[in-house]
Specification:
It contains eight helices and six strands. It is an alpha/beta fold and 190 residues long. It has one domain (4-189): 3-Layer(aba) Sandwich (Pyruvate-ferredoxin Oxidoreductase, domain 3), CATH 3.40.920. A six-stranded mixed beta sheet has the order 2-3-1-4-5-6.
């Protein structure tokens, strides 16, 4: 099997690392060679967080180079725009349409860019933008955006919902399990 590549990007504290671990666990359970690499940056201060998930018959490196990502799963709109050059031709970006102002915008030194979805689509990238935050809140917590996005991502895999649920059960603390399963289901059906 040809190696597949997904980048999971967001802002520190959004749950990108849990999402990558969940995806890695699912892929390992299906017998793939899986490599996951995390780049934290200034994650504790609201900075970018990037995780690479690569899988196939044999994966030698955990790093995804520019033009290699089959998909970028983005927890925030500006983060999606930052990583467009990593998407391979014919690739896609699945993005939460939420906007989190970076420090230069908060400080008044810059403005949040407008029309990002249209600009990304103008690059020839398939864009699936939707309001994952509202669905996460419907599930019970704004912190469940990660599982809403994983539900949306699951539409592009041939794995069963049961296989995803088993990966969630092994990745999420029991006290948050039902809320996260609900968030996943809302993302999957959105």
């Amino acid at each position: 099997m040809e190696t597949k590549n997904i980048m999971i990007v967001g802002v520190g504290g959004q749950g990108t690392l849990l999402a990558s671990k969940l995806l890695g666990r699912l892929l390992l359970g299906k017998g793939y060679d899986v490599k996951v690499s995390e780049v934290h940056g200034m994650s504790q201060r609201g900075g970018s967080v990037v995780t690479y998930v690569r899988w196939g018959d044999r994966v030698c490196s955990p790093i995804i180079d520019k033009g290699q990502a089959d998909c970028v799963l983005s927890f925030e709109l500006l983060e999606a725009a930052r990583y467009t050059e990593y998407v391979k031709p014919g690739g896609r970006i699945i993005v939460n349409s939420q906007q989190i102002n970076p420090m230069p915008v908060v400080a008044g030194a810059a403005s949040y860019p407008e029309n990002l979805v249209e600009k990304i689509a103008g690059l020839g990238i398939q864009v699936d933008a939707f309001d994952a935050l509202t669905l996460a809140e419907e599930a019970g917590s704004s912190k469940a955006v990660n599982l809403v996005l994983m539900g949306r991502l699951s539409k592009h895999f041939e794995f069963t919902t049961q296989e995803w649920m088993e990966a969630i059960e092994h990745s999420v603390p029991p006290k948050f399990l039902e809320m996260n399963k609900k968030a996943f289901a809302l993302g999957q059906s959105a």
